[in-house]
Design goal:
The protein is of the alpha+beta class. The chain has a single domain, classed as GMP Synthetase, Chain A, domain 3, CATH 3.30.300. It contains 5 helices and 3 strands. It has a 3-stranded mixed β-sheet with strand order 1-2-3. It is elongated, with a radius of gyration of 22 Å. The relative contact order is 0.15.
Length: 113
C-alpha cells in the first residue's frame, strides 16, 4: 500500500498507441492472416477444386503454409492427393499470394457435403 493507503495500481504505459495501430498489429498476426485465408478458401473452394471434388472435400486448416484438406472417403482422398500441386497453385491464385506451400489430405467422413 502507498502512503495514502491506496492499493498499488499498475502504471499506465507512457507511450500511447493509436487504435488503428493496435488493430493492424492484431489483424496482421500470422494466426489471423491464416484464418482469414482459410475462410476465403472455404468460400471459394468450388472454384479452386471444381464442383465434384468440392462436394467431397473441404479445406480445414492453413498453418505454417500447410493447407490441410479433408476428404469424405479414401477414394476421394486419393483423387485430392493426385491433385495436391494443382490445389496449392489454385489456392494461392485465389488468395492472391503464396500462402500455401504444401497440401496434406486427410480422410474425414464429415467432409462430404
Amino acid at each position: 500500500m502507498s502512503e495514502r493507503g491506496d492499493a498499488e495500481r499498475p502504471e499506465r504505459p507512457t507511450r500511447e498507441e493509436r487504435v488503428d495501430s493496435v488493430i493492424r498489429d492484431v489483424l496482421g498476426g500470422r494466426g489471423m492472416r491464416s484464418g482469414v485465408a482459410l475462410g476465403r478458401l472455404v468460400r471459394s473452394w468450388e472454384r479452386v477444386v471444381g464442383a465434384a471434388l468440392a462436394r467431397e472435400t473441404a479445406p480445414v486448416s492453413l498453418s505454417g503454409g500447410q493447407l490441410v484438406v479433408a476428404a469424405s472417403s479414401p477414394p476421394w482422398a486419393a483423387q485430392a492427393r493426385f491433385l495436391v500441386v494443382e490445389i496449392g497453385r489454385l489456392a494461392n491464385e485465389e488468395l492472391g499470394r503464396d500462402a500455401v506451400r504444401s497440401v496434406r489430405v486427410v480422410v474425414r467422413p464429415e467432409a462430404g457435403r
